[in-house]
């Protein structure tokens, strides 16, 4: 239900945007006579709103997780509306090009930089938006480098915002639409700044040190001792771990807790598989770890005290949240009837 509520909110925002755009028109015939231009304007306005919402969803703010019912679901929606916003914003100038033909000189104004600064902001927004997708779709690069290309979308949003508020358009003359777009520009800029600068130091975090590690085949169990208060999580949740004193990438990486919440030390289990996890073998005793979270709603059904029949199905390293629940069950059974199917 919470996920549907989130989708309804996004559809409602798009609906309000379209209606404000319609109210900005003095004459409906303008929409009919210039259909490509009209569709281009709608794409641009909804695209900016959706891009701002997408940036907000990437902040990991607790209220956003509550609305969608878990951070994993938040990121699915973040990806979906990010793709929709990309399609709309890329087609914004393309539709204007089609409308302007056969005037090729006018068409080029929408594609390459020229003397008009407000137009150039839009052109630069397109360039910085398309570049990350080239890396995502065509070029395979390590995760730590991919993250930097993903941040180019924030620069794209900045240029798109400057374009929207400076160009002569409905946004510049119809104040309700202008304030609406400015509101979402503010949300997008706040979200980008918070994610890139402030989350690392002011996000929900606890500090741990690595107590010990143990490797079993291609799985590394990492035991973490809290420095001060430990993180309060429920079994089935995950967090982002940033190892600050080892050769592991400094970028926070998500892992499910494989230990029980009641245990003094936290435990995560890492499978050596990709670029990041290959370096997990470099983690050693005494390394400092910043743990951000907890996140996720996966264990809510298990942690509900009402007794019920549960069927668990897991494969490979996906067993980690179930291990957390099983270890908690061994300490403080909730009385559920659990049937567990596992394949490795």
TrEMBL record:
Residue ranges constituting the FAD-binding FR-type domain according to the UniProt record? 202-301
**The keyword Membrane is assigned to this record:** yes
Under InterPro entries, the record lists: FAD-bd_8, FAD-bd_FR_type, Fe3_Rdtase_TM_dom, FNR_nucleotide-bd, RBOH/FRE, Riboflavin_synthase-like_b-brl
So where does this one cross the membrane?
7-24, 36-57, 77-98, 118-139, 151-167, 179-199
The keyword Transmembrane is assigned to this record = yes
Q: Where in the cell is it found?
A: Membrane
How does the entry describe its membrane topology? Multi-pass membrane protein
SUPFAM superfamilies the UniProt entry points to? Ferredoxin reductase-like, C-terminal NADP-linked domain (SSF52343), Riboflavin synthase domain-like (SSF63380)
Keywords of the record, alphabetical order, are: Membrane, Oxidoreductase, Transmembrane, Transmembrane helix
Which cellular component, as a GO term, is one annotated location?
plasma membrane
Q: Where is it mostly found?
A: membrane
Superkingdom of origin: Bacteria
| Any GO MF annotation of the entry | oxidoreductase activity
**What is the protein's name according to its record?**
FAD-binding FR-type domain-containing protein
Organism equals candidate division WWE3 bacterium
The organism's taxonomy opens as: Bacteria, Katanobacteria
């Amino acid at each position: 239900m919470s996920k549907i509520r989130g989708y309804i909110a996004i559809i409602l925002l798009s609906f309000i945007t379209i209606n404000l755009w319609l109210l900005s028109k003095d004459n409906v015939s303008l929409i009919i006579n210039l259909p490509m231009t009209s569709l281009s304007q709608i794409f641009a306005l909804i695209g900016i709103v959706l891009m701002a919402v997408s940036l907000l969803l990437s902040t990991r703010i607790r209220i956003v997780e509550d609305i969608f019912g878990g951070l994993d679901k938040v990121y699915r929606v973040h990806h979906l509306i990010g793709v929709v916003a990309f399609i709309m914003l890329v087609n914004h100038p393309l539709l204007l090009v089609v409308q302007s033909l056969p005037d090729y000189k006018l068409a080029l104004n929408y594609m390459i930089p020229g003397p008009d600064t407000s137009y150039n902001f839009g052109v630069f927004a397109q360039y910085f938006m398309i570049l990350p997708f080239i890396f995502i779709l065509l070029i395979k690069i390590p995760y730590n480098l991919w993250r930097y290309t993903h941040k180019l979308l924030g620069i794209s949003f900045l240029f798109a915002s400057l374009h929207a508020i400076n160009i002569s358009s409905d946004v510049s003359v119809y104040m309700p639409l202008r304030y609406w777009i400015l509101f979402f520009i503010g949300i997008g800029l706040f979200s980008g700044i918070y994610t890139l600068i402030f989350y690392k130091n002011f996000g929900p975090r606890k500090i741990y040190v690595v107590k010990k590690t143990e490797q079993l085949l291609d799985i590394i169990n990492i035991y973490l001792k809290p420095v001060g208060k430990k993180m309060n999580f429920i079994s089935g949740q995950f967090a982002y771990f940033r190892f600050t004193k080892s050769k592991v990438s400094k970028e926070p990486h998500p892992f499910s807790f494989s230990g029980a919440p009641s245990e003094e030390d936290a435990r995560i289990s890492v499978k050596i598989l990709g670029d990041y996890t290959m370096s997990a073998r470099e983690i050693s005793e005494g390394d400092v770890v910043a743990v951000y979270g907890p996140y996720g709603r996966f264990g809510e059904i298990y942690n509900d005290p009402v007794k019920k029949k549960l069927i668990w199905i897991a494969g490979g390293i996906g067993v980690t949240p179930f291990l957390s629940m099983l270890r908690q069950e061994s300490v403080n059974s909730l009385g559920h009837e659990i049937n567990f199917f596992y394949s490795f």
